[in-house]
Every structure is written in structure tokens, then in C-alpha cells.
Design brief:
- By secondary structure, the chain is α+β, with helices and mostly antiparallel strands.
- It has one domain: 3-Layer(aba) Sandwich (Beta-lactamase), CATH 3.40.710.10.
- The protein is built from 8 helices and 7 strands.
- It has helices at 25-37, 51-54, 71-81, 84-94, 99-112, 135-148, 153-156, 217-237; strands at 46-48, 68-70, 160-163, 166-169, 181-189, 193-202, 205-214.
- The strands form 3 sheets. The chain has a 3-stranded antiparallel sheet with strand order 5-6-7, sandwiched between helices. It has a two-stranded antiparallel ribbon with strand order 1-2. It has a two-stranded antiparallel sheet with strand order 3-4.
- A hairpin with a 2-residue loop joins strand 3 (160-163) and strand 4 (166-169).
- Helix 4 (84-94) packs across helix 5 (99-112).
- It starts with 24 loop residues before the first helix and ends with a helix.
């Protein structure tokens, strides 16, 4: 997809339902940045870490129950380290203690931006029955998010994030290896395979590629490059 025009250069099974995995976190980050823009929270606010948030499994930051962490660090952890526990901490905070209220907001936002086949069940993309999306819907999400908050790419393009003495590398293998790549979010759960919503810019052309259900991170990397290469070639042909 051309980010400026919304033109879609190539699709294959764009409406097939699949678990979004950690690409879900783009919606969580969207709502966090909206809350900051409205003045409801500040990046410097200290977010309390509950026992429930701290014990969330999968990819995570080193969060300790009872501590308070600056929101900006949680944003970096979610964006770069794909921290599942940070998502729950923020969902609890913005949901006034009830993460389900935050998830309801995620689904409302999905409807608002035209994500017709997506259902979110949690704020991080961990396996959940009925949590599904499509390549088309996730492309709509990524485009809406980046058009509203282009400054978020300064964090999404970070190749690593360190917190509490632990460094996590960004799973987006395009960063630093594909010319112009600067985001956005990878994901993996067994139900889907390897997913990515990837962004890259060359000159004035910014493209978005969504690859879902790859059988390995190497296949995801290769197929995403194919799409981006094709998209940049098509963009050159179009005035």
C-alpha cells in the first residue's frame, strides 16, 4: 500500500482471517498516543505495575510488581521489545483498573477506521480464542496510526531497547538491512505463524507491506522485501 494515496499495489488473500499476534500492539500504541494527545496521560507519567501485569508471559520487559515505570519506557518496550506485560500495565492504567475496558476501546477504534473483520480480545496479541484480523485490516490500522502519529517511527525504527539492565533486540529484521525500512511491528503465535506490518520510505514514497502467516522469520523477511520492491517499482510508474 502507498501510505500517501492508499493505493494498494498487490494483494493475496487480503481478507483471510488470521490471528494478528503482536501486530495487535499497533492498536494499543495508537490508543496510548491518542490518550497522550488528549492530555489524559503524559509520557513522563509513572505507570504502576500490578502483579497481573508483571506475570504476563511471552516477550516481555523486566517489570516488577509494585514498581512504577515511566509511560515512555513502556511505549518503547511495547514498540521494540514487543513487551506483553507492558501492554497489560498500560491497559490497566488507561482502563482505570479494567483492561477489558481498554480492549473494548481497541475494538471501537477498529470499527472507526474501517477494520471490518477484526476482533481484539487482549492488548498484546497473545493467543486468545476469537482474536482475529486480516491483512487488509492491519494495513488500514498501520496507515491510520502512522498518518496520525508519524513521530512514532522514531521509536519503531530502534533496533534495540534496554530497560533495567536488560537489552531486547527488535525482531524486525528489515531495520538496517533494507534501504528505507523504519518500522513497524512483527508478531508470532503458533496459530498464525510469523506476521509483520512493515514500513519503508524512499524519497517521497512511503510504502506499507503486510505479510501474515509466514512459516519462518526468514520467509517473512524475504516475502516482505518482495512486496516492498514491487511497490516501489509500481510507485515509480504512477505519476
Amino acid at each position: 500500500m502507498n501510505m500517501a494515496t492508499g493505493t494498494v499495489y498487490y494483494t493475496q488473500n487480503p481478507d483471510q482471517l488470521i490471528a494478528p499476534a503482536s501486530v495487535t500492539k499497533v492498536m494499543t500504541l495508537f490508543l496510548i498516543r491518542e490518550a497522550i494527545a488528549r492530555g489524559q496521560v503524559s509520557p513522563t507519567d509513572l505507570i504502576p505495575i500490578s502483579p497481573r501485569a508483571a506475570r504476563v508471559g511471552g516477550s516481555s520487559m523486566h517489570l516488577v510488581p509494585g514498581e512504577k515505570v515511566p509511560l515512555i519506557e513502556l511505549i518503547k518496550g511495547i514498540s521494540v521489545a514487543s513487551a506483553n506485560n507492558a501492554c497489560v500495565a498500560v491497559a490497566e492504567h488507561l482502563g482505570k483498573g479494567n483492561p477489558a475496558a481498554f480492549v473494548a476501546r481497541m475494538n471501537a477504534k477498529a470499527r472507526e477506521i474501517g477494520m471490518r473483520r477484526t476482533v481484539f480480545k487482549n492488548p498484546n496479541g497473545l493467543p486468545a480464542t476469537g482474536q482475529v484480523s486480516t491483512a487488509r485490516d492491519l494495513a488500514l490500522l498501520a496507515r491510520a496510526y502512522l498518518r496520525r502519529f508519524p513521530e512514532s517511527l522514531a521509536i519503531h525504527s530502534m533496533t534495540a531497547h534496554s530497560y533495567a539492565g536488560v537489552t531486547h533486540r527488535n525482531a524486525n529484521s528489515l531495520l538496517g538491512s533494507y534501504p528505507g525500512a523504519d518500522g513497524l511491528k512483527t508478531g508470532f503465535v503458533c496459530a498464525s505463524g510469523f506476521n509483520i506490518a512493515a514500513t519503508a520510505q524512499r524519497d517521497t514514497t512511503r510504502l506499507l507491506a503486510v505479510v501474515l502467516g509466514a512459516t519462518s522469520s526468514a520467509v517473512r523477511h524475504r516475502e516482505t522485501i518482495k512486496l516492498l520492491d514491487y511497490g516501489f517499482a509500481q510507485a515509480k510508474k504512477t505519476p
